[in-house]
Amino acid sequence: MSLSSRHLLGLSGVPKEDIQLILDTATTFREVLERPIKKVPTLQGKTIVNLFFENSTRTRISFELAQKRLSADTVNFSTSTSSTKKGETFKDTVRNIEAMKVDMIVVRHESPGVPQFLTQISDANIINAGDGTHEHPTQALLDMYSIREKVGKLEGLKVCIVGDIGHGRVALSNIHGLKTMGAEVSLCGPSTMMPRAIEELGVKVYHKIDDAIENNDVLNVLRIQLERNAGASIPTTREYRTYFGLTSERLKKHNKDVLILHPGPINRGVEISSEVADGPYQVILNQVTNGVAVRMAVLYLLGTMH
Ligand code: CP
């Protein structure tokens, strides 16, 4: 069994069989993470570069750990210590890294489309670790893995993505992935944070969080992306919390068993209260653990196609 593409640029257009294969392969690697020695020789001899042009805690460390667990040689690039600071272009940077004979590139960049551009200037397998407001495919894969692990299925499940939809790449990848896997996907947030014509993707839109809680099995809560000027879309974060914040009072009111995800980083007390973020319904740190297994699966499946 192999994937239908040698790159992972997004989940738009990725067939169900590919997503299923990644999630099933991740289950095997999830078991490896529970062993005393969390390492397999699968990608021995492969060289992987992590190109991070934008800040990251979870994704960068998760990819690096996944690569080390698979015994790959791994190198990290960060803009702040690179020659891009001396004016070297993105294309020259990549060509120089490529000249060192790398097999795979994991890239995060603030501009949508950079992973796609990399496929044109590099022979390596390219994995998108988040490109601007476009896609974050491995985040959506680990979200789907975490839902499936907890609930046992994705087909027919009602999943609502709550929050700053317009500025978030996680929302788009989740919409594509979850719909492909047969889930019923909806969105909830202020209309100023909803991309125009988003319903054309086949999603329902709620403007009241109580309706979202009442009508869904899973809530994937996204943070307000203040670094992308999301503050201009709402009067204040306090008002956002009043109307869209997920609190235990709101959850209790509906008396309903709802699974809560958050990709992180969390703005505690804004989109989610600490009580909910640390409470019994959430799987936020499970998502982080599962992220390593899911990224191992993606690296393994792409790395053995080359
Ligand atoms: N979820 C996520 O992408 O987190 P980081 O920005 O810390 O990688």
Which helices and strands occur, and which strands form pairs?
Layout: H1 16-32, E1 47-52, H2 58-69, E2 73-78, H3 90-98, E3 104-109, H4 114-121, E4 125-131, H5 137-151, E5 158-162, H6 169-180, E6 184-188, E7 204-206, H7 209-214, E8 218-221, H8 237-244, H9 248-254, E9 259-261, H10 274-277, H11 284-303
Parallel strand pairs: 1-2, 1-3, 3-4, 5-6, 5-8, 6-7, 8-9
Helix pairs in contact: 1-5, 1-11, 2-11, 5-6, 5-11
Q: Briefly, what is this?
A:
This protein is α/β, with parallel strands linked by helices. The chain folds into 2 domains: 16-135 and 290-303, Aspartate/ornithine carbamoyltransferase (Rossmann fold, 3-Layer(aba) Sandwich); 137-287, Rossmann fold (3-Layer(aba) Sandwich), CATH 3.40.50.1370. It has 11 helices and 9 strands.
3D structure, described in words:
This protein is α/β, with parallel strands linked by helices. It has 2 domains: 16-135 and 290-303, Aspartate/ornithine carbamoyltransferase (Rossmann fold, 3-Layer(aba) Sandwich); 137-287, Aspartate/ornithine carbamoyltransferase (Rossmann fold, 3-Layer(aba) Sandwich), CATH 3.40.50. Helix content is 39%, strand content 15%. The mean pLDDT is 95. The structure holds phosphoric acid mono(formamide)ester.
